[in-house]
Structure formats: structure tokens, C-alpha cells
Amino acid sequence: MDLEGLRSKYAELTNEQAEGLWFAPGRVNLIGEHTDYNDGFVLPFALSQKAVVAAGRRDDDLVVMHSLELDETVEVALGDLAPGAEGWSAYLAGVVWALRESGAEVGAATLVLTSDVPLGAGLSSSAAIECAVVAALVDLFQLDIDPVERAKVARLAENAYVGAPTGLLDQAASTLCEADAGLFLDCRSLESSLVPLPMTEQGLEVLVLDTKTPHSHVDGEYGARRATCEAAAAKLGIPALRDVEDLQAALGELDEEVMRKRVRHVVTENARTVEAFQIAMNGRLADLAPLLDASHASMRDDYEITVPTVDLAVDTARSAGALGARMTGGGFGGCIIALCRTGEGDGIGRNVADAFAAAGFGAPEWFIATPSPGAGRLA
User: Fold this and answer.
1) Where on this chain does Mg(2+) bind (predicted)?
2) Average of per-residue pLDDT across 287-310
């Protein structure tokens, strides 16, 4: 990551030095997919890949944003910030808008961005940007905002300004995670617990493989799943699908087969996430593998959010020696994760690449994930 280039670009734009560098990581969700907006549980961890912002205050009324990777600058007046903006700059401007909407005294700023979180891969590249900007503006304008509220501000930017109907999972992970740990988050109460993930000590590693099938949370499929869940909860007379106590009884009250399938995924995925938390807290990380497999089957068959590249990657990873594997992220493309024995992840990635080539798919990319700390100041 070119941090000197980041500083140089800031100085070029402003004729001043940046007041600091702030970062926030991408995340991978170990388990708990589409449970967040159903008031359920999730278990993500932060990645070493991150967004970094060089930032400083201005004495005019502009928010000046620059992307180092795109070599593009966008300016918007504070008074012109409004939901509905498009493009990469909306994720930065949206945070300024969200903070001001919440009553924070945030003024003009220059924000220069770089990121090595893969785009469209289900690793929360957008949340990384948002949470890095939140961290920067909180420090620059000396705001008293706790970590959970920071995550909420970032989510407001994504939901209301960008227009993506995501839950809090991405922003919470990017803000609250710590090194060598996952985050078990109750998406209703927002209570959280750090979950030790001593992968190396237990002879394990997590392969993250990007199928290079881009996805977007702003598209209609994600919103349709969420709307179906909300409609099902209303029919069942409960606040959210998290409140289903007897799955079979609930399914018996629903007439539409599609709705029954969506409910079954959410309820069983929630149970799997709670079980995964208990397994991890007991220090038995290898025992997570069957839960990963069951999660993928549920996303494929009941939630119907996988695609051929993702299914082939999961199947190949398992046949090549992964203990368990599943799609991770919102679906319709993106990444898979595979729980592997130490040293085997890269070979499993090569096996998937060979399977993709044989199937006529484009080449995937992969890395071994390192549970990393959440947002903060770099310099």
C-alpha cells in the first residue's frame, strides 16, 4: 500500500500536510449470513486488507475527495450533500452527511483514499471506506462517539446516502474487531463478544478465495430477500425472524414456498452462528467445518444466493482437502472461505483455479486471511 503516495497526493491537492492517516479493514464473515437484518447473530473477523484515508480540515465549505487508485477528484459543498449520490465518492461524502445528520459538528475536509480491499468480493470494501472516514472525522473534529455509534454512522451512510439496505455486520466488524479474534455480535442488542481465533496454534488457516464474480448490495436481489424476511415476520406476528422459536410450526403458518425457504435459512443460520460461537469459545476451531458446509447448502438451496462459480469453488475446495467451506458475503458472487490445515490453503486455491479454467471461468484470486484489528489511526 502506497502510504507515501497518499501523503504526496494530499499535499498536492492542498499545499499542506495531512493531519493524519486513518484506516479501517475489510472483513470476512466466518458464519452468519443474512442474519444481521433479521436481528440475529453474526461472527465476522477483520482482515489485514484495509482502506486508508489521509485527511485534514479545510477553511471553506467543501468536501474534497480523491481516490488514489482511480486518480479522480470529486468536490461537493457541505450544503449540497444529499442522499442519492453515485460512485466511489458517495461512500466518503455519505459519512460527512451522516455525521451532520446525527448532530455532529463536522465541517469541510479533504479526504484522500487508498484501499487494497478487493472490490465487489463480499469483503466489505465499502464499509472499510466508511469506517476509515468515520475514524478520521471523529478525530479531526474531536467528536465523542463510541465505537458502536461509529458503526451506526457508517451504516447510515451506506443505507440512506448510498442506498444499500445492509445491516450493521460490515461496519461493526470494521470498527470493533481486534487482532487474532472474531466478533460475535447480537444485531438486536448490539452486545458483542470477542472470540479467540488462534488458527495457527490449532494447525489451521482460513483461505479466502475471490471468484471474481462481482456483486452489489444495491441490486434488487438483496433487497428482495430482506423484504421477504420482513413480510414473513409480519405474517408470523413477531418483530423479526430471530424470534422464531419453533421452526416447523412457523413454516406451517406460511403458504408461499419461497417465503418458507427464506425463513428456514435465516432460522437455521442463526442457530449455526450461535453454535459456532460456542465451539470457538471452547477452543475447538476445527469443529467449525461442518457448520460452514451446512451454511453453504442453506444459502444455495433455501436462500438461493449462490452462483455457479461460487458453488464450484466450494465443491472443489472440499474435494481438494478443505475441512469445510462456504460462500461468504451477501451472495450472487464474491468470495468463499475454506477452513484448511496450515499450509494447505494455497494448494487448495490452485485446485480451484484449475477447476475454473476447465469450466471456462475466469481465474480466481486468493489469500490466507489474518484476523486483524478494527479501525484506528495509522499516523
Assistant:
1) 126, 158
2) 97
Give the DSSP per-residue string, 314-332: HHHHHHTT-SEEEEESSSS
221 annotated as ligand-binding: no
pLDDT on residue 256: 96
343 is in an annotated binding site: no
Parallel, antiparallel, or unpaired: how do β-strands 62-67 and 365-369 relate? unpaired
Closest CA to 293 of 314, 321, 262: 314
Phi-psi region of 212 (alpha: psi -120 to 50; beta: other; left: phi over 0): left
H or E element in which residue 51 lies: strand 41-57
pLDDT per residue as tens digits for the range 304-329: 999 999 999 999 999 999 999 999 98
Q: Are 141 and 106 in contact (CB under 8 A)?
A: yes
The CA distance from 289 to 270, in Å, is: 16
Is 37 annotated in a binding site? The answer is no
175 annotated as ligand-binding? no
CA dist 327 and 324 (Å) reads 11
Q: What is the mean pLDDT of the chain?
A: 95
Q: Which residues are catalytic?
A: 170
Q: Give the span between the Cα atoms of 92 and 132, in whole angstroms.
A: 9
Please name each of the domains of the chain with its CATH number. Answer: 3-194+373-377 (3.30.230.10), 196-369 (3.30.70.890)
Q: How far apart are CA 102 and CA 98, in angstroms?
A: 6
